[in-house]
UniProtKB/TrEMBL annotation:
Residues 238-454 form the Tyr recombinase domain. GO terms for molecular function: DNA binding. The keyword Chloroplast does not apply. GO terms for biological process: DNA integration; DNA recombination. InterPro entries: DNA_brk_join_enz, Integrase-like_cat_sf, Integrase_catalytic, Tyrosine_recombinase_XerCD. This is Integrase. The keyword Cytoplasm does not apply. Keywords: DNA recombination. The lineage of its organism: Bacteria, Bacillati, Actinomycetota, Actinomycetes, Pseudonocardiales. It comes from Kutzneria kofuensis.
Amino acid sequence: MKTTYKVNVWAIKTLKPTADGKKRPKPYGVRWVTAGEEHSEWYKTIKLADSRRSELLQAAKRGEAFDIATGLPESEWPQREPRSLLKLAQEFIDEEWNESAPNTRKRYVDTLAVAVAAFVKRDGSVPDGRKLRRVLTTHLLPTNRRDRQLTDDEARTAEWVVSASRPVSDLAKKVEIGNVLRALGRNLNGTAAASWTTRTRRGVLHHLMEFAIDVEELDANPVTRSKVATHVGSSEVDPRVVLNPKQAPQVLAAVTYAGRREYLYGFFGAMYYAGLRPCEVNRIRKADLRLPDEGQVDEWGEIILEKSASRSNARYTDSGETWEERNLKRRAQGAVRRVPIPPQLVDILRWHLRTFGTTEDGRLFRGSVSGGPVNATVYTDAWDKARKIGLSPEQYDSPLAADPYDLRHAAVSTWLAAGVPAAEVAERAGHTVDVLLKVYAKCLDGQRALSNSKITSMLDPE
C-alpha cells in the first residue's frame, strides 16, 4: 500500500437535475485528492455528504496517512472488505487478458476455476462441483463473458461462489495453500491429473500469488514456500521419442500412403526440416517462402515467419472464431523469425505448391473440408497412420515419434547434434537459449554409440 500525507479535500459538489427535470438519486459529492489521485463519494442528502467531508478533514488534521489508491484514511483501512480469491482471480485475468493468446487465457481460467472452487467456505449447501466449475469458466472468470445471461440455476450458483469465496489473506497459512495445491493435482472426477497439467496449474497459481503481492494482499508468495509436491515429471524431451535422420524421411514418405492425407507431407516436412510448431506451419503463406530457382540444386531456402494460426475455444478469442492469427511466440508485434530450410524441404514445398496450390489468402495448408487451418485431430490421425506404415511394429509400439510434435523435437536435437551453436538453434526454433538447453539438449536415437566412440578415442589415443 502506498500512502501519503498530501491530501486536499474539496468543497461539496451538487449535481443539477437531469435534462428532463428528474432529481438525481445521489446529487451531493464529496471529492478529495491524495497525491494527485482524485476520489469521490456521492450521497442522497447534503447532511450526509457534509458529515463524510468532515470525517476526511478530521483524519487529515490528526495526521493520518491516506492510501493513495483508495483515498481512505488510516483509521478506515481495517474497514475495507478483504479481497476474495475469486475477486483476485478476476482482477488477475483482466490484467493479463489483452496480451494473452487464446489458449493462455483458457489455461488461466481453467486453472483458477479449480483454485477458486477449492477455496470456499463450506458452511451451508455447496453446489454440485460440475455446476460450480461451469459457472466459473463460462461466466465469472473470463473477462469477456461476465455479462452473459444466466439461467436461474446458474445465477444461484454464481451468487453462492461470490459470497463463499474466502479471503486471499488466508492463503498465507501453510495448510490452506497446501489444500489448494492438492486440489490442482486432481481432476473433477477425483482422479490424479497428469503431471504436466499439475505443473502448469501450479505455475498459474504462482503467478496469481505474485499478483496478490503486487496488490498488497500478501507479503510473500505461499506457493514458493509450500512443500506440497507436484507429480514427478520433467519438461525435458524424452530421447526415446526422437527420430534420427534415417528414420524421419522414412516416416515422412509414409504420409503419402496414409489414406488421402498426402497434402500433409509438406506440413510434417516443415515441422521436421524447419523445426516449426503446428500453429506456425498452419500460417505459412507462399509469400513467406524464399525458395532458390528451379535450376539450382542442393541450395537452401528460407521461411520468413510472421504470424501463427492457433485454435481455441471461441469464447477465448477476440474475434469469436475458433481460429485466430497471433504474433509469434515470444515475439513482439510485427517481429518475424527467419528459418533457413534445407534442400530436402525446398523440394517438398515445391511439390506441394505444384500439387495443391494455395488458399485464396495464400496459405499452403488447409483442411480438406473447411479450407481453414488443419485441425489437430486431422494431422494427429494422419501421423499415426504414417507411423504404422513407416516404422517396424516394435518401433510403432514404442514412444518413438508418437506425437507429431516430436518432429520438432527431432529437428532441434538434430541441429544440436550437428554442432550448430545453441544460440543459432534457439533463434531458428523460436526459443530462448535457457529453454532450449533445458528441454531439447538430448541424444538422438542411435547417436550414443557415436558419442561413446568419440569419448573412447579421447581416453585411448593409441
